[in-house]
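pinning this so it doesn't scroll away 📌
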Amino acid sequence: MFKALLLEKDDAGFRAGVREIDESALPEGDVTVAVAHSTLNYKDGLAITNRGPVVRKWPMVAGIDGAGEVIESRHPDWKPGDRVVLNGWGVGETHWGCLAQRARLKGDWLVPLPGAFTTRQAMAIGTAGYTAMLCVLALERHGVKPGDGEVLVTGATGGVGSVAVALLGRLGHRVVAATGKAAEADYLMSLGASSVIDRAELAAPGKPLQKERWAAVVDAVGSHTLANACAQTRYGGVVAACGLAQGGDLPTTVMPFILRGVTLAGVDSVYASQPLRRQAWQRLASDLDAARLEAIATEVSLDQAIERAHDLMAGKVRGRIVVSIG
């Protein structure tokens, strides 16, 4: 038997609870992992609170991220005792996830946990931080370098935003953090932001072309915020888009793209290739100050995860929530 955060939906309605589950119920997979830590991402929040159609197979064990140790393997790349990290691949959506003491997964989904990180630190990063690194890699692929100008990070107190600020600041970029939480300015400056602006400056409908300001943007918000970010990006700049906290719409025009040569680079973390995943985790190990993770992360138990998921969806969470599976 093992403990898991189980989501159920049937004629009686939706239920989320921590349950004891028999190991025989685990899904198909060639690697079984003893999960030490998981985390709560925005997508987890949507699933656990039933606020969005994330789960596509019922019942479902929640948790799109996990870090722990292999205990059984039929996959040639993994053996018992290996430390691994899992992000995405539909886990927690169509395949049982990692907010559980046991997870049975496909070995092709796993990445070696860098020696620089504990399982707790890996989940302080989680999909949010791994996505932030994918955004930084996208900016670099398009030629953005420290010293090119200001880099805007939207949704800066969230998981993606917090890690993006920390990464970009340490790499030498001049980071401008946009947030609706004015009281968190000191937190953002401590992570590496050079200045903080009110998200209200970006959240309302704006002109299709605005004064050029940003050399690059990491956006986790979407909607009018992303539209305004594109409209304010300098000639030849790049905008990495990875989220929709404000909305999934994009009320913009082609003007920034055809008159200023702006690039809108989409970033997907769920099905990113293995080489890109490994590159992202290697870069996180070298470029992210592990001490920053202590400021970013709050740890809770599995039994507290449902309550904290509701807090996350209510905008009451700063940074990252690590779940100790224990």
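📌 and the second one:
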Amino acid sequence: MPVTIRKCTIEDIETIQQIGRQTYFETFVAHNTEENMNDYLQKAFADSKLREELENPDSEFYVAEQDGKVAAYLKINQLDAQSEPMDSDYLEIERIYVLIEFQKLGLGKLLYDRALERAMSLRKSKIWLGVWENNHNALTFYSKIGFERIGQHSFFMGDDEQIDYILVKSVKEEVF
């Protein structure tokens, strides 16, 4: 079961949109109203928004394919593309989205490793990300690979205020 990871281009917009909407829905539908969920999915994964993100030189998208099937994607940001104001020596992992049928196969770790490689090549000292306080699978994963909680911020799903934990990890030379 070979896995390939490739950098996305604007031609991948529909793939990113489909994975993003499906993964987000499956992960969070039980915790949100249908109205809030539909509104968020339409805005967050709109063609115009994804096009802008893909064309931003400070954001990068990567797709993981397993046996020729698109299974997951990664979005990283630096500098002004970060979703929260952070120093220039930080790299943000904004999304690691893995389709349910491909979860627990190590794809999240492979995409994290790609983000770590990019952080090192860009000479960043820290990687950070935000994780919903009730996303226990993600919190467990990030804790296992050395992230620590340094704060939190509000995230609004429609009219519902939710809390994301801000997690950070120092970047150092690591063996893959």
